[in-house]
Amino acid sequence: MNRLKNGIILMILISFLCFVIVMPVSCLFKTLTGISCPACGMTRAFLAMLRFDFLSAIYYNILSIPLAIFLAYAIIRLIIDFIQNHSTFLEGVLKFLQKYYLIILLLLGISFLFNNLK
Fold first, then answer.
1. What are the φ and ψ backbone dihedral angles of 107, each rounded to 5 degrees?
2. Half-sphere exposure of 24 (CA within 13 A, CB side)
3. CA distances from 38 to 11, 27, 60, 79, 104 (A)
4. Domain span including residue 6
């Protein structure tokens, strides 16, 4: 069961990343309100990182590099968990989110401000 769950999550994550690279995505929040959300610019930031233009990536979205590092780590850990038939990574992420949710919300707030002040 762990292998199936890890495989599904891994495929969803990889499919999402491929979808974002291939098809441009517009922000529904920005379309409706006219202001940028904390994730606005993330697609452009990831595309800039693929070109090794990290300064542009930071300009597009200040959280893009930490998120890219986390996604790379998550893919590697999910592959390891898939091979070993464990689910330790997902349990660890849930514990991390429960412990540091206020810091994550603060970072999202900073990103929101940064996206709308630039």
1. -65, -40
2. 3
3. 25, 10, 11, 29, 11
4. 2-117
Which has the closest alpha carbon to 74: 2, 1, 4, 12?
A: 12
Q: What share of the chain is helix, strand, coil (3-state, %, to 5)?
A: 80, 0, 20
Q: How many distinct helices (H) and strands (E) make up the chain?
A: 6, 0
Is-contact 3 89, C-beta < 8 A? no
Q: How far is residue 52's CA from residue 21's CA, in Å, rounded to a whole number? A: 15
Could you give the count of Cα atoms lying within 13 Å of 43 in the half-sphere of its Cβ? 14
What's the total number of domains in the chain? 1
13-44 pLDDT tens trace? 888 777 767 776 677 788 888 888 888 888 88
pLDDT at 24: 66
CB atoms near residue 17 (< 10 Å): 14
